[in-house]
Amino acid sequence: MNIALFGPPGAGKGTQAKELSKHYAIPHISTGDILRANVRDGTELGMKAKEYMDKGQLVPDDVLIGLIKNRLNESDCESGYLLDGYPRTIPQADALKLILEEIGKPMDAVLNIEVSDEELVARLGGRRTCSCGESYHVKFNPPEKDGVCNACGAELYQRDDDMEDVIRQRLATYNEKTKPLMNYYKDQEILVDIDGSNTVDAVFADILEVMDQFK
Ligand code: AP5
After folding, report:
1. What are the DSSP E strand ranges found in the chain?
2. What is the pLDDT of residues 101-144, one digit of tens each?
3. Is 13 a catalytic residue?
4. Ligand 1 pocket, 27 CB below 6 A?
């Protein structure tokens, strides 16, 4: 299965991707997670990316295109892939098309997860993250022990870009730079709308139902 998850910040891409990756046994490729790992490790890429991420802006296309090309050429993608957070601009989508032609793995579907702006702000403002990759919400998905990761016991933190002013900027960036991709994939007849306002389990069930047609 070759899938891309599309949608605004906080739509639930990462949450759904974790389960879908297990269900279809395909790697979850989150460009946000890869960039954050580089920031944590203090790499040159991470230092460059942080400048943009902290402001709610997109990291330059050339950086992302190189990164995704390398990742898609890794051996675990032979079974398929689940893209989360890529592509986010038309040049990224054009580059992706060429990369996928080269590796012979065209996309089956782009799942467009739709959620209202009000709900997105509430979800992102309450998100708490763990360095192990787990993600929680203070109200919608709280950890068993306040501020502590269920999976690894580490202290949870709030992402720098989950502060209210940065959230608003990320939504504006999404509307300006990323939303136009909806028509790009609609024209290719691979865009499928998913109502992301339901519970996590209900959204997951809807995605599986939709993906049945691509088996
Ligand atoms: P990235 O990490 O990709 O951030 P994003 O797209 O803004 O997505 P999020 O991770 O914020 O949200 P999500 O949709 O995954 O929601 P989640 O499942 O966590 O990118 C960060 C930055 O990196 C970008 O701003 C940019 O600077 C840079 N970057 C990354 N990719 C790039 C690219 N291709 N080009 C250029 N720059 C790039 O859920 C959110 C919260 O809601 C959680 O608390 C969760 O528990 C809760 N939740 C989820 N689903 C539900 C539900 N159904 N009901 C109730 N709560 C829910």
Report:
1. 2-6, 28-30, 81-84, 109-114, 127-129, 135-137, 191-195
2. 999 999 999 999 999 999 999 999 999 999 888 999 999 999 99
3. yes
4. no
Domain range holding 9?
2-27+74-116+165-214
Q: Compute, in angstroms, the gap from residue 124 CA to the centroid of ligand 1.
A: 8
* Active-site annotation holds for 71: no
Q: What is the DSSP letter of 58?
A: P
Look at the chain and report how many structural domains it folds into.
1
Q: Which of 36, 123, 127, 128 is catalytic?
A: 127
Nearest 5°: phi and psi at 205? -60, -40
Q: Is residue 124 part of a domain?
A: no
Which one of the listed residues 55, 159, 177, 186 is annotated catalytic? 159
